[in-house]
Structure formats: C-alpha cells, structure tokens
Amino acid sequence: MIALVQRCLHAWVRVDDTIVGEIGPGMAVFVGFQTGDAPELDAKLASKLAALRIFADEAGKMNRNVVDAAGNILLIPNFTLAADTTGGNRPSFTGALAPAEAKARFEQLAARFAPQLPNVQTGRFGADMKVEVLNDGPISLILRLP
Hints:
By secondary structure, the protein is of the alpha/beta class. The protein contains two helices and eight strands, in the order E-E-E-H-E-E-E-H-E-E. The chain starts with a strand and ends with a strand.
C-alpha cells in the first residue's frame, strides 16, 4: 500500500464538472493498493494518517496531527501509485490490486476515520478525476506500508 500525503490549504476532486469531494485545511491523500496488501494494512494506514504530526503547533513546529489541528482529509484513489517503471518507458500497473477489491478497501478506509474525523471526503473510485491541491509548505510525504 502506498499513500502520497500532501498537507494542504484546500483541495477538491471534480468528476464530470461536479465537485465530489472538497476540503479546507488538512491533508490530501492519494492511496494506491497493491496486490498482496493485507487488509490489516487499512487500519494501520488510517491510524498513521490520523496520528501523523505534520501540522504546526503554537511554536511553528510540526507537532500536531490532523485531529489536533481540526483539519480535514480528502482521500483520492490512485492505482497509478502502484506503477512499476523499471522495465522501460511505459509504466506497468500489474502490481495494482484488482479494481473491485481495491474499491471495497478504499471505501472501508474512508469509513475508518468516522469516529475521529466525521468530515472525510473522497474522490470517486474508477472515475476520470480532476484534482486540485493547494499544497501547504510544501509538505509531501510518501508512506509505504508493507
């Protein structure tokens, strides 16, 4: 499982000229599921994202997590994070989890935040999405969970 986390001032996902997910300050998280990813990783990723200290405290140090900062999360499904680019110039996506299973896992991941962050927004799985992220910092992190 791979996640690209961007601390942002705002972010939105648009599908067919309609905004399907939009947040203010928080994190935009692109999530890619890979074959062999155990379902237990979903809970680990949700926990890691909620606890990740990338927001400034009163002293300006990155000591606050998204919950402490009263931030938002926009989850965006992105199978291209599982791309293998070692074999040539065209990426291979054979390492990406099958779409039906990845969609179910993505929906379950989003639901895991409900107790702590009731306003988690998502992109639309399998759609042609247009994504805008106003990165803050910029702070961008790649999380790889075995």
